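This part of the workshop introduces the protein records we will be handling. Getting from the letters to the tokens is the skill we practise here. An example says more than a description, so a record of this kind follows:
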Amino acid sequence: MPWNEKDYPASMKNLDEIVRKKAIDIGNKLVKEGYKDESAIPIAISEAKKWKSKASKEDIKELNKKDITKHKNDPKDTSSRLQDKDVIVRYDEKSKEWEVYSKGAKRKDSSFKKKSDAKNRAEEIASNKGSEVKAYTKEESKNITK
């Protein structure tokens, strides 16, 4: 049964109302895609907080209109197929930054000037997904393709 604004995980209780609604929305989608509750909840909360920090008034208005209990399976959506994939940290020669991405992903999650920052982000993602971090040296990164 999907979560709603009256019945949701206890860890969402103290969230701002709009962040909680977005976390419920994201959590329902993740569970529908096959994530276990214990993985979906922290991912949903983290992503909802990020979304709120960048959301426009229009985004918030749109969320308030949305039925957060209904989600379609989207065959083009890659998030479930990336759930168990390793998180990669590699150096990109063009940007001169360390990239973080899930193996098989079309886009990087983030990039950093320092490898240690990239590894910290990769470990955060991997712990939420229950996967491993593969960190490469600058030299090894030359042979790693997305």
Notes: The mean pLDDT is 86.
